[in-house]
Amino acid sequence: MKTKTEEMYASMNPWRLFFVVAMPGMISMFAMSVYSIIEGIFIGQTLGEGAFAAVNIAMPLVMINFSLSDLIGVGASVPISIALGQDDKETANNVFSCSVVMILIASVIMGTIMVFAAEPLSRLMGADGELLDTSVRYLRTCALLGPLATIFFAMDNYLRISGYVKTSMAINIGSNLLTLVLLTFFLLGLKMDVVGSALAVSLSMCVCSVVAMIPFLRGKTLLRFTKPHFHLSMFKQIAACGSPVFLNNVAGRVTSILMNISLMTLGVIEFGEGGGTTAVAVYAVLMYASDLCWPLLYGVSDSLSPAIGFNWGAANYDRVKKIVRCGFIGTAVIGFVSTSILFFFPGTIASLFVDAEEIRLLEVSTRAIRLFCLAYIFRWVGVMTQSFLSAIEKPALATIMSVSIALVFPVLMLGALWGLGLDGIWLNFFGANALLAVLSAIMLNIVGKEIKKKQSTLNQQ
Q: Of 34, 223, 303, 389, which one is least surrounded by beta carbons within 10 A?
């Protein structure tokens, strides 16, 4: 007998499913990223340009710390959804239980490595003096709390697979409120520096990780904790399905490191001594501005993945196409609205993260946002395509897309636009996402032919 969640995935009108699942998922993912925006506002307005640059130096390394946990969490979500579509709850529950244990072990290992590697890695990106010291302290604080904080994102995925979309949204909103309270307490109350910021965000995620586990521990969800049985084929399946996100994270962090090195060089060329710190701070403003938009795209595409995977496992290919079509339309609207908002209100957005007295930083950030936002004209295509490929267990194609947008295309654009100076860095995102849109069209054509072939085979049976 199918559960209410399974019935929803299998038979609900695609557009109704979109609004029931994707809209709360979009809000949830945006809420999950708001903690980053809040952190950026607090750091920019209370600690200044130097702290802003230091956090941007450390952030790629913080995300590398999360990379293995993301691999396992996302990689497990795909076989779980497909197993549920095949009505194989035993396999789904085992993959779920094993993945939670694996995430905890991986996060302890990665956190330990980052504590010891923080200083040499920060030096590699050109940080020295006070910038180096601040970056290292921020990174080590995040790494020490990582083992419990990193499981937050995976548990959010599992809640949505189990149909607890509103619960996921509520926990994410609660996470941001707690982050706001802790940031106020540590930065304004105790007058701490970036360590207070790292503590606020990490502690908030730790608390919400525990809260997110409660429905599963009470046995009230579609997924249940069982005695984990590890086997090689499961490891391979999780690794294959999670590799696109993992490689995207790692490659993206490598690109960020290259960007920071380039910014330190170009900033000095354009602004003179101390210009490198300004350029890195502007890049940080762009990343925070991006957090206003990209989670909406990712929230829609990621929330639809369980439904896509469920119907793919059930061989309901017509329904897969209808759900994916809704996803593309929804993300396209978000992409064009995001471009418009960032293009017409760059100064307002920059002023959220930059103190009004830092005139040069504010002016450069405003121009950078206006160039950077053009990426959202194309970004929705790649985000939805990659999520679709991952949901139907096409890890090779999804991995090609991940590595391309995270490393290959940005590096190509870095060389091609170097002559434009810092403007070339801000336009990098536009060029890389335009190339990704072309690659997405090729991938969709390949998968479309496969779906036609599968449908033809089913019709002949």
A: 34
Nearest residue to 289 (alpha-carbon basis) of 68, 37, 66 = 37
- What pLDDT does residue 117 have? 82
Indicate whether 377 pLDDT > 90.
yes
What is the extent of the structural domain holding 57?
4-460
Does the pLDDT of residue 135 top 60, yes or no? Answer: yes
For residue 415, pLDDT over 50 is answered with: yes
- Per-residue H/E/C for 17-83: HHHHHHHHHHHHHHHHHHHHHHHHHHHHHHHCHHHHHHHHHHHHHHHHHHHHHHHHHHHHHHHHHHH
Predicted pLDDT of residue 461: 64
Which pair of tokens denotes residue 402?
A: 């991940």
Long-range own/partner contacts, residues 117-126 (CB < 8 A, 24 or more apart): 117/61, 118/58, 118/61, 118/143, 121/61, 122/57, 122/58, 122/61, 124/257, 125/57, 125/60, 125/257, 125/260, 125/261, 125/264, 126/260, 126/261, 126/264, 126/276
Residues in the chain, how many? 461
Count up the domains in the chain and report the number.
1
Torsion of CA 336, 403, 417, 361, to 10 degrees: 60
pLDDT score recorded for residue 452: 86
pLDDT bin (cut points 50, 70, 90) of residue 2 is low
| pLDDT at residue 3, as a whole number | 60
Burial 16-40 (b: 16+ CB within 10 A, else e): ebbebbbbbbbbbbbbbbbbbbbbb
Please give the full DSSP string across 284-320, using - where no structure is assigned.
Answer: HHHHHHHTTTHHHHHHHHHHHHHHHHHHHHTT-HHHH
Alpha-carbon gap, residue 458 to 207, rounded angstroms:
48
Q: Judge contact between 103 and 150, C-beta under 8 A.
A: yes
Tokens describing residue 103: 């995430």
Question: CA 355, CA 288: separation in Å to the nearest integer?
Answer: 15
